[in-house]
Amino acid sequence: MENILTTKQKISLIAIGVLLLLNVVAWQRVFILVESHYLKVDFLDVGQGDSIFIETPSLRHILIDGGPGNAVLGQLGKHLPLGQKSLDMIILTHPDSDHLNGLLQVIEKYKVDYIVWTGIVRGGSQYQLWLRLLEKARESGSKIIIAKLGSKIKNGQVAMDIINPLTSVYGQDFRPKNNDNDTGIVLHLTYGKNTFLFTADISSIIESKLLEIKANLASDVLKIAHHGSKYSSLKGFLQAVNPRLAVISVGAHNTYGHPTPIVLQRLQDLNITTLRTDQNGTVEILSDGQNLKVSKEKTQNN
Ligand SMILES: [Zn+2]
Question: Would you list the domain boundaries of the chain?
Fold first, then answer.
């Protein structure tokens, strides 16, 4: 009798254990579901250049630019689900080395469904390699999309409007000076009530034109154009965007003097909180469509 009771007790203990385990599994599932309501935007710390990683609430992955070298590969390893070797979309804003070079490595190592760029002509061996890799990607099933004003990239409730280039630049030749900054793809992202503006390296010339045509600029988060160059970030432009947070993607001790004191001062005068990838590391922003949660890898140490 004693033995039977003991066995029963054992069985009920095991049953409780199984229930507890099921509970944990259920919790994990609930947690994943809750987490997937977030849009995640990471301004990756890749040195002197731009690279922005976006995870939509339905777990689509978009990379805007790849920075100047292979740092982006380590960053993707950290930010993509374990073992994932594919991206839904990459966007090359313009083929300058600090935006392009990292993407060359990404396109070689990751399967990419959609590749968006402007199709301009530029000099340099990296640009030639980009063309070859594009062709290879196309042959293995990637779709190449030429960015056009007014086009929209949509996934569920996340939408990105292309608001620059303002005219078609496809096939336009920028050699020998390669001054293609103003052809950069500018994207205005909306998720619920939250908005982001990604400005590539556009100068004040394009900023003025965007103001002139009353483009939809107002955004919670602004990626400062051209790493904080003094030729961008007009006061009127910053006022029109009116961001709660500005992010400057920039490398420590870069030779360009980015970000420039004049732009930092303008941001300060307008009381715009500013984070920098050289001081804060990767800046991550989570949005539930209503609120933003900002986290940074490092606290400023100077
Ligand atoms: Zn740049």
Answer: 1-35, 38-296
All residues with CB under 5 Å from ion ligand 1: 98, 201
Token look-up 């950290």 returns 78
Element (H, E) at 5: helix 2-35
CB 243 within 8 A of CB 220: yes
The DSSP secondary-structure symbol of 121 reads B
Residues facing residue 75 across a β-bridge = none
Query: How far apart are the CA of 157 and the centre of ligand 1, in A?
Result: 29
Residue 228 CA to ligand 1 center (angstroms) comes to 10
Residue with tokens 């990751």: 110
Distance CA 222, CA 225 (A): 9
Q: How many whole angstroms from 201 Cα to the centroid of ligand 1?
A: 5
Helix-then-strand count for the chain, H and E: 8, 15
Closest CA to 39 of 290, 288, 265: 288
The reported pTM is 0.88
**What letter would DSSP give residue 182?**
G
CATH fourth-level superfamily of 38-296: Ribonuclease Z/Hydroxyacylglutathione hydrolase-like (3.60.15.10)
Are the C-beta atoms of residues 7 and 17 closer than 8 Å to each other? no
Walk along the chain (302 residues) and give the pLDDT tens digit of each residue: 444 545 555 555 555 555 555 555 444 444 444 446 899 999 999 999 999 999 999 999 999 999 999 999 999 999 999 999 999 999 999 999 999 999 999 999 999 999 999 999 999 999 999 999 999 999 999 999 999 999 999 999 999 999 999 999 999 999 999 999 999 999 999 999 999 999 999 999 999 999 999 999 999 999 999 999 999 999 999 999 999 999 999 999 999 999 999 999 999 999 999 999 999 999 999 999 999 999 999 886 54
Q: How far apart are CA 141 and CA 59, in angstroms?
A: 21
At residue 29, φ and ψ (nearest 5 deg) are -65, -45
